[in-house]
Design brief:
Blueprint (H helix, E strand, L loop, with lengths): L6 E2 L6 H6 L11 H6 L7 H19 L12 E2 L12 E8 L4 E10 L2 E8 L11 H18 L7 E7 L3 E5 L2 E4 L16 H12 L4 E7 L1 H12 L3 E7 L3 E8 L16 E5 L17 H8 L8 H6 L1 H17 L20 H9 L6 H9 L7 H33 L3 E7 L1 H5 L3 H12 L5 E6 L3 H19 L1
Parallel strand pairs: 3-6, 6-9, 10-13, 13-14
Antiparallel strand pairs: 1-14, 2-12, 3-4, 4-5, 7-8, 10-11, 11-12
Helix pairs in contact: 3-12, 4-5, 6-15, 7-9, 9-10, 9-12, 10-11, 10-12, 12-14
């Protein structure tokens, strides 16, 4: 079901939400030592303002040619300059490699109100995440071939849009150089190479389908494009899921890393921020905790993707687990004992946070289910309240930092009204994330600025098709 979106200004939001998100309100059953342990996750208004100021500086560095090389927020040029008009038509294939999921899609753009999407998700072997690049792309081509043959598409010449949600420096719509792997991937032979070429070579090796990869994009660009198909004022795409990133529409003349930024006849350029790397230069240490640093050390990319590791679903559950294990070691929770499963890294899924916070105050139905899955029995109510309190601390920091990022982008664009297309499991499934995001954005934005948060339906599919359509139409005009 599509979530109804609303338009918000500073005049809205009553006292109820102010009470709901007031800082420093500690549940009565939570031990003061536990409150002290999670204090580092509670970012006040002053710190949020500082995050916006520091992020603004980093984005400006990423856009400018002279400072781009040393910027941590790279602000990569997407080479997508045309937003959807609603008149795009035709059949397109899309591949979506977003981290923990992989899908193949057929998108048929019949009209602005009639878009047919057929998709299949494939089980992604974990071994491929750290194997050879050739094995990875051969697997993608194999799945694509299976999909095409099942749907009788093997003899149709179809353009393909490749949603590849990793840091890529684009040198054209169909040329994207992988800068670094994230989200647990470390495949050899891919960093520094054009992933479109690697995919197309794998497709051509098979020789059993007529597919041409015409565009590469990341999930934020797909999210923006998909949302803009229905909401012409959409100018920002945000992902808060396994990872986190954002893109936005910038004036072409400000995109200095685009070769034709001064002479382009098109006024706009979608910029892929790659904001997950914000803080890799140390400017976010004032909002990080000791638990963040422990998580960072056990990831495949220590010292990298600092902002993302404070926000996204890949890390939130582990942060909660580390806090809980610390409290258990100090005999502040679960009578100082826990289960074998809880002692395993990454065993506390980020989805558990959404489950636990979905319980009404004083109720623990979902919490009990989570504890049962983790093998923890005999918990008292204070333990459950403490667990909920820890989850809320981690998820609220995520929403606050995300709000800081969106406010930074809105301020940079200097606009008074904008639609923001959003996708990702954290935003979609956390019961309060939508409201927290709105609340904190409203506190940070200048008076009178209106914004609308819209769930972007299938950005990786419809968005990839729209970018592919843009590429095909662009070539047709040449």
């Amino acid at each position: 079901m599509k979530r109804t979106s609303r338009l918000f200004t500073h005049s809205l939001f009553g006292p109820v939400l102010k009470i709901l998100f007031r800082e420093g309100k500690m549940p009565s059953l939570v031990n003061t030592e536990i409150e002290a342990a999670v204090k580092g996750f509670l970012i006040d208004q002053e710190k949020m303002t500082e995050v916006v100021e520091r992020m603004t500086k980093e984005i400006k560095m990423g856009l400018a040619k002279d400072t781009h090389s040393r910027a941590v927020i790279k602000c990569f040029v997407s080479h997508v300059q045309d937003l959807p008009t609603g008149k795009e038509r035709g059949k397109y294939l899309a591949l979506d490699l977003g981290g923990s999921t992989f899908r193949v899609l057929l998108v048929n753009l019949l009209s602005v109100s009639d878009v047919e999407i057929v998709s299949k998700s494939f089980n992604f072997p974990v071994t491929l995440m750290s194997g050879s690049g050739k094995a990875l792309f051969d697997f993608l081509a194999e799945c694509l071939s299976e999909f095409c043959h099942y749907h009788g598409l093997q003899n149709e010449s179809l353009p393909l849009g490749f949603t590849f949600s990793f840091p890529v420096q684009q040198q054209g719509l169909s040329k994207g150089i992988l800068v670094a792997w994230t989200k647990g991937f470390s495949c050899e032979g891919v960093v520094g190479r054009n992933v479109v070429t690697l995919l197309q070579e794998a497709i051509d090796r098979r020789g059993d389908m007529k597919v041409n990869t015409v565009a590469i994009l990341n999930d934020t660009v797909g999210t923006l494009m998909s949302c803009a198909f229905y909401h012409p004022n959409c100018r920002i795409g945000l992902i808060v899921g396994t990872g986190s990133n954002a893109c936005y529409v910038e004036k072409t003349v400000n995109a200095e890393c685009f070769e034709g930024y001064q002479t382009s006849p098109k006024p706009s350029m979608i910029i892929n921020c790659e904001w997950g790397a914000f803080g890799d230069n140390g400017v976010l240490e004032f909002v990080r905790t000791t638990y963040d640093k422990i998580v960072d050390k056990v990831t495949p990319n220590p010292g990298k993707q600092t902002f993302e590791k404070c926000i996204s679903g890949m890390y939130m559950g582990e942060l909660v687990r580390l806090v809980v294990m610390d409290m258990v070691a100090r005999d502040l929770m679960f009578h100082g004992t826990t289960s074998e499963k809880m002692q395993e890294r990454w065993s506390f899924k980020s989805s558990y946070i959404s489950d636990i916070e979905s319980d009404a105050p004083g109720e623990y139905r979902s919490c009990n289910k989570v504890l049962s899955e983790l093998g923890i029995v005999g918990c008292q109510e204070p333990d459950k309240e403490a667990l909920r309190f820890i989850c809320e601390a981690v998820s609220s920091r995520s929403a606050k930092l995300c709000a800081c990022g969106l406010v930074t982008i809105i301020n940079k664009m200097n606009i008074n009204e904008v639609v923001i297309g959003i996708d990702g499991s954290v935003y979609r499934f956390h019961p309060k994330y939508h409201d927290m995001l709105q609340f904190h954005m409203k506190k940070l934005l200048k008076p009178g600025v209106k914004f609308e948060l819209v769930v972007s339906e299938d950005g990786s599919g419809r968005g990839a098709a729209l970018v592919a359509a843009t590429a095909v139409q662009g070539k047709a005009k040449l």
